[in-house]
Amino acid sequence: MIELIQVSKSYNKGKVRAVDDLTLTVEPGEIFGFLGPNGAGKTTTIKMIVGLLRPDTGRVSVEGFDVAREPLAAKQVTTYVPDTPAVYERLTGLEYLNFIGDVYGVQREARLERIGKWLEIFELSAAVANPIQSYSHGMKQKIVLTAALLPGPRVMVLDEPLVGLDPRAAHQIKEMFREHCDEGKTLFFSTHIMEVAEKLCDRIGIIHKGRLVASGTMEELRALDRREHSLEDIFLEVTGR
Amino acid sequence: MIRPAQLKTTVRAGLKANFGLSVLRHRLFREKKDRWLVPVVGLAVAGVLPALYGWVLVIKGMYEVLAPMGQERALLSLGILAGQSLILLFGIFYVIAAFYFSRDLEMLVPLPLRPAEVMTSKFAVIVINEYLTVAALVLPVVVTYGAVAKPGLGYWANAVLVYLAMPVIPLAAVSVAVVVLMRLINISRKKDALILAGSILLIVLALALQIALGKSAGGQGPAAEARAVAAFFTSPDSLLNRIGAVFPPGIWATKALAGGFGREGLANLALFLGVSAAVFVMMVAAAERLFYRGLVGLGETTGKKRRLTRDEMSRRVSSGRRAVAAIFAREWKIMNRTPIFLLNGILVVILFPALFILMTTIDPAQGGGEGDSMFLLRALTSANPLIVILATALFMVVCGSLNGTSSSAFSREGAQFWVSQVVPVPPREQVRAKFLHSYLVAVLGVVTAGIVSAVFLHLRAAHLAAAAGLALVAGVLLTAVGMIIDLARPLLDWANPQKAIKQNLNVLLAMLADIAILTALFFGVKAMMGAGWADPVVLAVLFLALAALAAGGYGALLGFADKRYPEIES
Prior knowledge:
heterodimer; A: Rossmann fold; 2 domains; 6-stranded mixed β-sheet; B: mainly alpha; 25 helices; 78% helix
């Protein structure tokens, strides 16, 4: 579960309001898609959830742990995939996974099983002993995803996770999303791909100029106006075309 | 070969990107974030001023000794040669990093620019860096000479031109060597190892060259020495000609300055600028042919595509280390596998004692073996045991702690710092692992310095142990100070790893802080000796004071980590 209560964040001494009084709850077992134009405040919101940024006001909690007051407990149940796969290029894929397993305290049996499973699915088994430096962009994205799945987190937060993935990997990721949430876990991700959000998400939030301008299930969003609109139309409508 | 309009645009972009003027302006005046840096830098500069003043006094003293014998122009020649030697040595690091490891190359190579235009833009950035690097060494010589000799307007005008052109010859020479080296390395699969080996080779060659120059500038036997001494007193500029004979541009630059607007001055200026231009053109030609061939594909690492067997996988998947051990292993691997970090961190602690051996064992007059400097050192170290211990400890500290490992401990993570911020490991534990890594490098320096002292100075075991004890405790303090400085303002947005360690202001600030601490300790010891305290008491008090400071510094570092980690926006 993720909870943001009246969260605001501004830059440049308050001149640029990136997130403005955002209140949002993502329930366990829910896939939440976070949409918004470039610069709307998606990444800032995500970074506040995972503790990379501190909100100016308001409270963020993950699985009931206040991110500001109990950061370690919150981090222990959360994993994060950033929008660009910046990872230690001089380590091999396996060394990076070992590092993540060690710092999250993943047991050896679980580690072996999950690493084997996701490397197989992402077709990384043959490259895992090579330095990450030698990976393509998509492979780097896959190793970051594998690392995020390794601790078996209660909450996954992903910033544009499908960018740079081939169709097969994108399909597998979407299946993983569903599998993850069917276990009662929470998944929060931002995307620009309307079709994915429309088909995959249990609920969708649209952020514009730092404010949550629409939130709900696809049906609830469609009910915002009386016409039978696609998510793309709704997006264009609420973000002012 | 080079199109001026394209070159101008590329150079301008390179300078803006490298010196971050737009970013600095934005941070200082728009975000008002880095304003605290202004007084800190001001304080650091003020701290260096007394040393600079001392340097000016030394130069003035040398001028007053040389002038009556008509040898004063040798001073200029020495200053220029020292500057160019420094440029040659630093240039190797700068050139390799800027030409082959800056991330903006990925953006520049696909643009419709000639290889020579891209390389020249990088060259311009390095030249400006070199102006800053050698300013403190060369400018006091040129300005003091000008102020004392009062040579007229021509001197100053030519001085500006000579200073501007000064880095061109050594840097262009290094650039050609590096471009050829990289062209060869790019064929191989073990590029990182070869880059490292190649860089060390270039440094050794540069050092060997300087030693060879020193040799030929010295005497070639007693008869030649006698002739040189006679010439020194009878013929003006004999010293200048002797120093400059090994590197003629040094003489041309000196004569250009001293000759001013006169015929000799202008002719030598033309010669100096002409040869600089010719060497530059040669570099451009080499760049056009070889630069991209060495560059394109350099970042590619072709791993063997081989699926690990179940057994291998089971062996390689760790069974769970403690977080401190995992972070320490990460630091160790990344440092050792990034050639620029390895060169500037660990290799410095090995190179420094090696340089010491080179400088003290090779004597110009004897062409090897043990020289006067070694004799002098032995004499010094056999005198007062307290001085022996303190000097050895200082040598160990300089070898171990005055590198950029601790003061770039956080900056080196760069864009990957987000990983450290999201993992469920308390900041103080992460910092503990980083401290262990930096301290291990310092210990390595203490050990190599200890071996050099034991083998070449034949120090007694007790003296060596006492010195090592002091150096190891001082290492804790200096490592903590370096890490606190870097944690206060980590440089995370670098595109070129060189920036994280070599061009990182934190490394400079930490060195200044270290010098300030060592100076304070020096005065403390001087006061104790002045008060007539017994040697063991002085050592014990110094050790205890250092231990207390080290414990305080380490505690402060851990406390600061808890506060600072969540504040850093990556």
